[in-house]
Design brief:
The chain is an all-alpha fold. The chain is about 90% helix and about 0% strand. It has four helices and no strands.
């Protein structure tokens, strides 16, 4: 059970409807993936646009999830490893992008 499903159920949606909404979301994600793969194979410049937007989206989501917990920490000793891990992730994405 994922967080989105639980959020829908806790907000008052029935379990059956929440499951249906999750299914629709999953189908949309699969269709978007297929469209991206087809467009990437047909339109070569499309690939150069997708990577920055995708990486930016992942970085945004990671920061939105982790930054509040980093800010709540009272000591630098607890926050520094998380910040370093975040930058290591960004560097890994850059290295992968440059070597593809």
């Amino acid at each position: 059970i994922n967080a989105e499903y639980m959020g829908l159920v806790q907000s008052g949606m029935s379990q059956r409807r929440a499951l249906g909404m999750q299914f629709v979301t999953a189908i949309g994600a699969m269709l978007g993936c297929l469209m991206g793969l087809v467009a990437g194979g047909v339109i070569t410049w499309f690939q150069d646009l997708v990577l920055p937007f995708t990486a930016g989206g992942f970085i945004y989501i990671a920061l939105v999830d982790t930054l509040p917990s980093i800010i709540e920490e009272v000591t630098v000793r607890e926050a520094v490893p998380r910040i370093i891990a975040g930058w290591v992730g960004v560097i890994c994405m850059v290295v992968i992008a440059l070597n593809e």
